[in-house]
Amino acid sequence: MAAVLAFLCIWLLFTACALDRSASAPAHGWSRSHGAVIAHDTFPADCTLCHLPGSWRELRPDFAFDHAQQTGYALEGAHRGAQCLRCHNDRGPVAQFSQRGCAGCHVDQHRGKLGPKCEDCHGMTDWRAQGQTASHARTRFPLVGAHLAVACFACHPNAQVGNFQGADTACQSCHIPDYLKSQQPNHVLGDIPRTCEECHDTHSWRRALFSHSGIGAECVVCHLKTYKKTSMPNHAASGISMVCSNCHGTNYWVPLAFNHTGVTEGCAQCHMPAYLATTMPNHMGAGYPTTCEDCHSTNTWLIPK
């Protein structure tokens, strides 16, 4: 009887606390705006068990209720601060809904696509999912490298409404914008395949690696478009050799490595287009000589002697 009494009183207490957020009613009271209170037909006749003398709107401030001890069900996490009426209301007996687990009170935002066990991803403190990395490892696309920090909706457009189905595992399904805007080298002009994994891993775009084993000695088989569009210097106009390996390595286009031994006709033989295009300062307008070696070294244009 004591447990029932305590439970009924705490129910009434939370009815007042949970529904009233206005300054016109006490924290442990009731407002006319709430309408009729819970029926008291089965409540004890001793009103002072819940109410303070002299006012029906004020409940006893020393009210205490041990949910675990009195009901056998401990309130954990966010449930400790939940309003009693969230579970104890006119929908029916609590036991009827508790048998359904989380779904007894919480609407399935995932629309049944992730199963009925909310606890597989969620705790009782908040709705933030936990353990997604381990769960994703059981799919056909384990999360590694930079993918660990990617928001779910970046690959699953409907993730924000609980739908994680249908993600394509091909790199280009998400990264085609990166492919189209790449400049070093320009993947589109260079006709580089869209199978990103041939050169890139999941840690960084910048650490591109490509095995040239089995590729013919002529770089232009793949890099002719890059050769034709290069302007610093203009390779085609300057008649620079198409044997890219004379200057470039297989890791990066820059820095360059060119053996100038054997060049006998001066820098302008190859670098006249660069001389003519220079604007900071304008070499031709300022009357600078075409003997580039007077100011520049063979390592870089940008750091004059």
Structure notes:
- By secondary structure, this protein is an all-alpha fold.
- It has helices at about 1-20, 65-70, 95-100, 130-135, 150-155, 170-180, 220-230, 235-240, 270-275.
- Among the domains are: about 1-100, no CATH class; about 220-295, no CATH class.
- Helix content is about 25%, strand content about 0%.
- Residues about 1-30 have low confidence and may be disordered.
Summarize the structure.
This protein has 305 residues and is an all-alpha fold. The protein contains 9 helices and no strands. 23% of the residues lie in helices and 0% in strands.
Topology:
Layout: H1 2-19, H2 67-71, H3 94-98, H4 132-136, H5 152-155, H6 172-181, H7 220-229, H8 235-238, H9 268-277
Question: Could you tell me the number of beta strands?
Answer: 0
Range of strand content? under 5%
Task: Report Rg.
Answer: 37 Å
Helix and strand pattern: HHHHHHHHH
Poorly predicted segments: 1-28
Number of helices: 9
How does the major sheet shape up?
none
Q: What sort of overall outline do the alpha carbons produce when their principal axes are compared?
A: elongated
Distance between the termini: 98 Å
Query: How much helical structure, as a percent, in the residues?
Result: 10-25%
Summarize model confidence as the mean pLDDT: 76
Q: What class would the helix/strand composition place it in?
A: mainly alpha
